[in-house]
Amino acid sequence: MSRKVVLFIAVSLDGYIATMDESLDWLFNVEGEGDNGYSEFYETVDTVVMGRKTYDWITTQMEGEFPYKGKQCYVFSNARAQKDTENIAFLNENISDFVSHLKQQSGKNIWVAGGGALLHSFIEANQIDEMIITIAPTLIGNGIRLFPEGDYQA
Description:
- The structure is a single chain.
- By secondary structure, this protein is an alpha/beta fold.
- It has a single domain, classed as Dihydrofolate Reductase, subunit A.
- The chain is built from five helices and eight strands, in the order E-E-H-H-E-H-E-E-H-E-H-E-E.
- The chain has a six-stranded parallel beta sheet. It has a two-stranded antiparallel sheet with strand order 2-8.
- Strand 3, helix 3 and strand 4 form a beta-alpha-beta unit.
- The longest helix is centred in the middle third of the chain and has 10 residues, at 52-61.
């Protein structure tokens, strides 16, 4: 069984994944059934990929230990020479090459955890194998779109 790159994300009814100020607080105010499949999904992945803004939000807004401890975590960032941590390896490389390398390794699925710009790059590189999108019953009005305008069809 080969590894898949999976998007697992929540979006508002009007298509946003974050507010204009990049907040995800709206998501924690939405009620759902259990954890909306998160725990079951989380067991299917051993690698988490995210953008720098998502990583910054997690480290500044979430309390407690790093939420993806025990998973191999990569953060794509344009910043120069960032030092890897116990939980994170920072990357600034071609997405297609990176994904091809990961898929050759044995393991579980690879989760693209956010954000919008990174997801857009994965879609443009045709590197998303499966999308699991939860539609949250709330309106944000404006913010960061799940799928920004682009010249792609997936």
